[in-house]
Amino acid sequence: MGDEDAERRDKLLKLEDSLCDLQVLAVEAGVETTSALLRMAILDVRQAMGFRKKLDG
After folding, report:
1. What is the C-alpha to C-alpha distance for residues 10 and 57, in angstroms, rounded to an integer?
2. Which of 16, 48, 47, 22 is nearest to 35 (CA)?
3. With contact defined as beta carbons under 8 Å apart, do 38 and 26 qualify?
4. What pTM value is reported for the model?
5. How far, rounded to the nearest angstrom, does the alpha carbon of residue 17 sit from its chain's CA centroid?
6. How far apart are CA 41 and CA 48, in angstroms?
7. Average pLDDT, whole number, for the chain?
8. What is the pLDDT of residues 4-23, one digit of tens each?
9. Which of 48, 40, 36 is nearest to 10 (CA)?
10. Which residues neighbour 9 within 8 Å (Cβ) at sequence distance 6 or greater?
11. How far is 55 from 51, CA to CA, in rounded Å?
12. How does DSSP classify residue 31?
């Protein structure tokens, strides 16, 4: 089960990185609504990582 958790965490970290990159591009392009939606998605991913960490710890 540890390998599955590590794989899930790696996927979430990659997703967070990608969302952060997209959010920066949205800010640079001045697309505020998209930027806000991406910020919400980033928070969701971070919560998913934190929630899982609390369950493990």
Report:
1. 18
2. 22
3. yes
4. 0.78
5. 7
6. 11
7. 87
8. 888 998 999 999 999 999 99
9. 48
10. 49, 52
11. 6
12. -
